[in-house]
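Go through this fold for my students:
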Amino acid sequence: MVDKTVLSGIVGAENVLTGKDTLNAFASDDSYSVGIPPVFLVKPHSAKEIREILEVANREGVPVIPLSSGGPHNHGDTVPAAKDAIMVDLSEMKKILRIDPRNKVALIEPGVTFGELKEKAYEAGLRVLMPLLPRKTKSVLASCLEREPFTLPKYQWDTTDPLMCTEILFGSGDVYRTGSAAGPGTLEEQWETGAAQKNPLGPGQWDALRLVQGAQGTMGIVTWGSVKLELLPRVQKCFFAVADRLDDLFDFAYRVQKFKLVDVCFIMNATDLSAIWAGEKAKSFGKFPSWVLVYSISGYDYFPAERIDYIEKDIEEIAGETHVSPLSEISNVLAEDIVSLISKPCEEPYWKDRLRGSCQDIFFITTLDRVPRFLEAMDSLLKQHHFPKKDLGVYIQPIQQGRNCHLEFNLMYDGESPKAADRVRALFEGASEAFMKAGAFYSRPYGLWADLAYRNDPQTVKALEMVKNMLDPSRVMNPGKLCFRGEV
């Protein structure tokens, strides 16, 4: 085990926390993961300090668990699976190193939250590509590294978006810069020549960013990254789209995204939309239709009104052909109010916890045309586990311009009731297995999902083991996660 004075010499004694309550809180989270309390919580303020911590960890053979978002945590990826671990909390590395309006990109440290970046981006006439209602303590880089979907799929060209370039400290302690940030020259020298760290590919003929994205901290620590921003609309109009058949909403979503007509675009059932809108006062689910597609259209600096006009007419034509009704309000709730609400971090209590107190999520990637089969499977599982359908939220987020979608089931329940918690756990485990067999792609394989994702793919496991041995030869980075279960 590392001596506290060694870590204090790196980050300062005030940034090495050893309180029992503080450390025990990391031994579990709001998922079903249970681990071992770390021995230290360390708060570095620079890449140099992180590198020195990694040097100590490699020398002493102790695990390092990186995190940058504030709690509560939900997926088990920051719960130590090995003893004597050091939690490396990056939340105080909060510098926004650069906002580049011309190239629509920001360079930020891992402690920067969505609210903080949104404020600075707004001053530059830009907007942040955000996931749906992140917590106020959510790190922008953590969200990007975990490939959380964002609500403006029009701007997602690749799975790595909106993350562009990064500086990584691999588990070995080696520093590596990805994409165009790799050089030549320092960042400042690159800026002098007009470079913007916006090309994520490379250096050379490979895409090093993908080694850390989705890796749950098992390969290294990102000390800064550049993220893509987009222009703030000068004019924006927002709508609900409703239909008698869910399939009609899918047809509509496919077509409006094909022609890049809409900005915000997602589908929710009444339970989730009620939780977002009414918050603590949500007692009824009759306010919204069973399924609603929320979308917005935007006009920018040049002829904004004219752009809005022709886009609205194009969408009306598509709506008529797909039997969908665009509405600006439903039951006195304006679409623009919903879009405004989801364009900023979530106020407390967190929206998923508002209706019943607790929530367990199941999410994966599929395609819109396959969603009905998963909905049917979930209906059957709800009956099997005696879970009330009215407590099931469903969130469907098109990604990569509608090429596929993030499908999320929100199981809302009374976390104070052991019986309800046991019921939800059984449903979670049964549904996760059933969805995997039905073709679900767990692109963010937390906890149980890691076993489901990797057990039938030994070649991928073998390849990842080779990469792990190169980048983290001492196996100090978050051992026991993903397919590296044999490390603990």
Remarks:
- The domain at 356-447 is CATH 3.40.462.10 (Vanillyl-alcohol Oxidase; Chain A, domain 3).
